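Running log. JK asked me to keep both predictions on one page so they can be read side by side. First protein, sequence followed by its C-alpha cells:
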Amino acid sequence: MTCRYPDLGREREAVEKFGLLARRFSVHALAEEALCAQFETLLRLDEDERSLETAARFVREYPSSKHVPAALSAKAWALKNLLRATEAISAYKALLRRFPKGGRAPEAHFWLGVLLEERKKPANAAAHYREVIESFPESVYAEHAQYRLANCLYERGEAKEAAEVFTKFLRRRPESPLIEAALYGLAWAHHDLKEPHGERAAWRRLLERFPSGPYSFDASFALGELAFSEEDYEEAAAYYRRALSYTSGEGADAALYKLAWSLKKLRRESEAAETFEEVHTRHPSGRFAADSMLNCGRYFLAKGRHAEAAVLFEKLVSSHPATESSREAAFDLAECHLKQGKWKKALDRYKESVGHLQGGDLRRAAYGMGVALLNLGATADAADQFRKAVGRGEDKLAAMSQLGLGDCAFRERDFEKASRSYYQVVLLYGFEELHGVARYKAGRSFEALGETERAKKFYRDVLRHHPNSEHAPRSEERLKALGGE
C-alpha cells in the first residue's frame, strides 16, 4: 500500500491514509512507517495537537524504532508551538538523555537555548548554544546558535565576551543573512565597553554594507553621537541628517534635536534656531520639545525679538509645567518683559523664578527686580534688590547694579549718595562702556547739589574718555548750560 498524496501536495488526505494504514494493519511492517509519516505530515501542516498525540503514540507503540528521535523531536516541537514551554523543555531534555549525540541533538540543544532564553535564563541558554557550536559545528543550527550565544552574553552584561563571539561570527560567516544583526550587536557591545573606535568601525561597516537596512537609522544616529561626544560637530550634523533621511517617525525627534545642538555648537545660530523650532512644532509633546522651545526663545531674545521670545516662553511655561525648561523659561520671560518695559509682569515672573535659581542667576533676578521696582516707583525695595545683585561680585552685573543704586538714591533726591554710587562704578569696575554713563550721572548729581565745578569736571571726563558714547552730546549740552567750554 503506497501513498503518493504528500508528493502531489495532498497532505491532508495523506494524513488520513497513513492513519488508516496504521490502525487497520497495526501488525504490518509498514504500520510503523505510516504512523511516523503521519506525525511528520501533521507537523508540516502545523496541526500541533494531533502531531503531539500521534508522536506520543508512536513512542509508546514503537519504543525501539529508529524513528523514536524524530518522534521525540516532533513531540517537543509541537509542545513549543502550543506555548507549553515547560513541557517542551522537558521533552527536548528527554531526547538528549536518550540520544545525546544523535542527529536530532543539535536541534534539541538549539531550541532548548531559545526556550530558556525566552524564560530569562541566558546562562542556561548559552550553555546549549555553546554545545551546538562546539559539538555540532557543521549542523544547520550552528550559525544561529553562534549569533544567539553572542546575544545571550550581551544580555547577561558580558559585553567583552559578546564582542568576541560576534567578531568570530562575522569572520567565519561573512555571507550569513544574520551579518547585519551581528554588526548591530557588535556595535552595541563596543558601546557598552566604552570602545568608541570599535563601535564606530562596526556602525560604519554596517552602513557601508546595508545602506538602507533596518538598522541604518540607528547606525547613523550612533555615529552622530560619537562625533558629537568628540566635539566634531560638522561630522555629527552630517550623520544626524543622514539618520533623518531614514525616518520621520520614532527617533526622528532625537536626531533633529541633536542636529540643532550640533548647529548651535558650530555657532550657526540661525540654522540652529530654525531646527529647534522644527523639533517643537513637529513633535510638540515629545521629550525634546521643551528644551527646543527654550533654545529657540533664547535665540529670539538674543536677537532683540522680545515679543516673539515672550510668546514662546509663555507657551513653554503653560504647556510644560514643572519641568526644568519651564522654570528657566519663566526667568527668561521676565527678562523679555523687562526689555519691553512691562515692569509689573517682569517683577511677577522674577518672583516666580527666585525659588528655583542659584548663584549668578539669583543675582540677575535681583537686578531685574531692582530695575522693575525702580520703574514702578518702589525705590527702597529696588535698592534692596540692587544691593543683592552687587553682592561681592566684580562682574558687569555688579557694576550695573551699582549704577542702579545710584539711580535709586537720585530718585529719592539723595544726590550725595547718588554721586558716590555712580563714581564707584568708575573706581571699582573696569567696564569702560559703563564709565561714560556713570560719569555723566555723577555730574548730574553734583549739579543737583549745586556743586557746579565738580559737575563740569565729570562732564569734561565724559568728553575726554568717552567721546563716542551716547552721553557725550548730553555732557556737552550740560557744560554749555553751566557756562563751561
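And the second, directly underneath as requested:
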Amino acid sequence: MSVRIRPLSSLNVMLRSLLLSLLLPLAVTGCNGPLPFMSGGRLDGEIQPAPQRWALTKDFGVVQLETETEAPYSVNVAYTLVEGQLYINAGDTETQWVKNMNANPLVRLRDGGSIYELRAERVTDEAEISAFGKAWTSHSMFHRDPAELDEVWIYRLLAR
C-alpha cells in the first residue's frame, strides 16, 4: 500500500499563511491586554501607587482599563485630565466595561508599563459633566458634548 502525498495548492498555502498571521499576534498578546478593537484579559505591569493629582504625558489619550469581574476584562479607553482629575468616558453607550464597573467599581489602569489600582466613580453632577465636556470637546471636533446627551457614562478614577 502506498501513501499518496498531494502538494498543497497555492490557495491553501495563502489561507494557512493568513490564518497564522492573524492568530499569532492574538496568541502573543491575548493574555496581556486588549488589542485595538478587541477586549483582552488581565493586564501586566508594575503596580504603582495612584497619584493624588494625575500628570500623564498629555491631558488626553488612550490607556488600558481592566475591570474586575469573574474573569479579567480589559479594553482601550480614552482618558481626559481635568485639573489633575482622571476621567474615562463611554459617551451615551453602556458598554460591557461600564456594566462591569457598575457591578464592581474596582479597576486597574495601565499607562505604559505601570498599573494603577483604582476605583471608578460615575459622574452625575451636571457642573462636573459640563467641565468634563469642555475639556473633552476641545480635543476633537468629532467629540460630542456629554452635557447634550440624555444619559452619559463618565467616570472619575480615584485611588482605592
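Observation for JK regarding the second prediction: The helical segments are 10-29, 96-103, 126-139.
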